[in-house]
Amino acid sequence: MPLMENSSWALLALLHVAAALVFLSKIILRRHPKRNFPPGPKPWPVIGNLNLVGSIPHQSLHFLSQKYGDIMQLKFGKFAVVVASSPEMAKQFLRVHDTVFASRAALAAGKYTSYNYSDMTWAPYGPFWRQARKIYLSEVFNAKKLESLEHIRIEERRNFLARLYSLSGKPVILRFYFIALYYK
């Protein structure tokens, strides 16, 4: 008899746990309603759809668009990416809904390197970003300022070409030199 009572208690406890899980899942699903996302392949748990993007990404995306349509959703790791693969869809993104897609993703790099997204580079699109852009265009990237710094660009180009000339006859990986030129 004690064995039967123990198994009935175990069964009752299991039923309570199952009911609690069903109840919690209903609450969670009600809080996060199903959104109307574009179609796309089912993602893997950690990598998402990165396995579907081969060594030639534009061809992989073309083949996927033939299967899923002009607009599709892919997951790159934990990030959802919407791919528009026709001129009509690109027009929708870039002209009709441009302000919706104007902001960058809120990454930790922007938060900690620019004092909580206060730099124009990381700031979300809005009044602050528009004001900062006006200031950059009028004070930093105007024709007079660019002309006043032209001598520095000329000197850097000459140094770059002199470095390349000194390496003539040897194999050169230009990527490293372009990166160095960019950061000077």
From TrEMBL:
Record keywords: Heme, Iron, Membrane, Metal-binding, Monooxygenase, Oxidoreductase, Transmembrane, Transmembrane helix
Pfam families: p450
Organism whose genome encodes this protein: Sesamum angolense
Gene3D superfamilies, alphabetized: Cytochrome P450 (1.10.630.10)
Transmembrane region(s): 6-29
Family: Belongs to the cytochrome P450 family.
Domain of life: Eukaryota
InterPro entries, A to Z: Cyt_P450 (IPR001128), Cyt_P450_sf (IPR036396)
GO molecular function, one term: heme binding
Protein name, per record: Flavonoid 3'-monooxygenase
Obligatory cofactor(s): heme
